[in-house]
Amino acid sequence: MPDKHNRRLALGCEGSANKLGVGVIAHDPVTGAATVLSNIRDTFVSPPGTGFLPKDTARHHRACFVRVALAALAAAGVTPKEIDCICFTKGPGMGAPLTSVAIAARTLSLLWGGKPLVGVNHCVGHIEMGRAVTGAENPVVLYVSGGNTQVIAYAEQRYRIFGETLDIAVGNCLDRFARTLRISNDPAPGYNIEQLAKKGGGILLDLPYAVKGMDCSFSGILAKADEWAAQMFGTTGRKAGEGGEKFGPEDLCFSLQETVFAMLVEITERAMAHVGSSQVLIVGGVGSNERLQEMMGLMARDRGGSVYATDERFCIDNGIMIAHAGLLAYETGFRTPLEESTCTQRFRTDEVFVKWRN
Amino acid sequence: MAEQEFPCALTVNVPFPTARLASIALQALGVDKELSPLVRRTLSAVAPADTQENNILRVKYVATTNRMLRVAVNGFMESLNLVLEVMEKLDEDVLTAGRKQNGG
């Protein structure tokens, strides 16, 4: 049932990694314009030196779901009757956290009189929300997060993957290096690396540069950065700074960021040249890094284009992007029957049929 | 299924206030299959002896070892707990009552 303004409303539930998000979005049935009514998030932050494990993350999502959902409904000021569909992240992501949120989404759907469910691809959620927030119509998309690293362009009803990581995601590389340095994971390990990197800049430590055509690799860079860190901490038996100047965590963070972001800019530029686009849209948690946005901006300007990025509300995993992408699919008639409302850890971006675009 | 292969069994009966809520729990929890081939589960909604209303959620677990049984039942209980909490706080009548209380 449309709300009092005759808009279509969707509730979105996200929990594929360590963020639990619930949001409500409204679409104008005439213009298609999206309005964010609420976007509530609660992040599971693990202690310094550790990552978030599936079991603990799922426990966090289960414990927080009701509180976050109530807050999202209250902030939006809507009742269940006004909501057209309930969207949840089908994948990709961590199995146990995904399933916890799917169980809650199913329960809401059934409690609220059998509201249609819409299972959403997490990556497509990022892309659609990025497009809606920035107004970028047909950009090359760089999707960079703790679990994914892809260069994507739209063609004929699919988001096609032009390049991707061959091993770990760029965000995973940064997160794990934050663990090596034992810096805080609050609010996010990548954010704290970015702040340290701002204090560096004097020394660029040698790290491998691993672009393979349209793809890239980060695990070797992480191994080398870990080696530099071990040298700095004096645990390898060698003296810190041997054969060069003394360096600190800020130099390591600076060097790591410059290297991996240069790689991302290179593969993005190649995709732009390939599809003849001058717009770049950066989505995913790493997309909130201002240095990455700056480097991408320099490249895009050289090509006579521009970079579109969003802030942490939309870059970092959230419920509203699931609501938005789900509602777009819902409006084309897409439904996820209850018996098919399972989750999947592997769900590639190009598996989704994008019926809502030309 | 051969009883020798799955010797460890546990049946849990969860009473719900209404058959509607028991049915919702059954549907919400029944979608995800047991991940381990060493565990089998059957879910049903049944009526107490003296009534016609199927307000009891009955889950029967069988497993190859007690360890597998414990892991599976613990996982089920965690999910069930989430379903119960969502029912308690987010059912439509509860939300309406909450709004009235807050003068909305």
From TrEMBL, chain A:
EC number: 2.3.1.234
Pfam families per UniProt: TsaD (PF00814)
Metal-binding as UniProt keyword: yes
Binding site for a divalent metal cation: 122, 126, 143, 317
One GO molecular-function entry: metal ion binding
Localization terms from the record: Cytoplasm; Nucleus
Gene3D superfamilies, per database record: 3.30.420.40
Similarity comment: family membership: Belongs to the KAE1 / TsaD family.
Protein name as annotated: N(6)-L-threonylcarbamoyladenine synthase
Originating organism: Coniochaeta hoffmannii
UniProtKB/TrEMBL annotation, chain B:
Gene Ontology cellular-component annotations: EKC/KEOPS complex
One matching Pfam family: Pcc1
One annotated GO biological process: tRNA threonylcarbamoyladenosine metabolic process
Family: Belongs to the CTAG/PCC1 family.
Name listed for the protein in its UniProt record: Transcription factor Pcc1
Species this protein is from: Coniochaeta hoffmannii
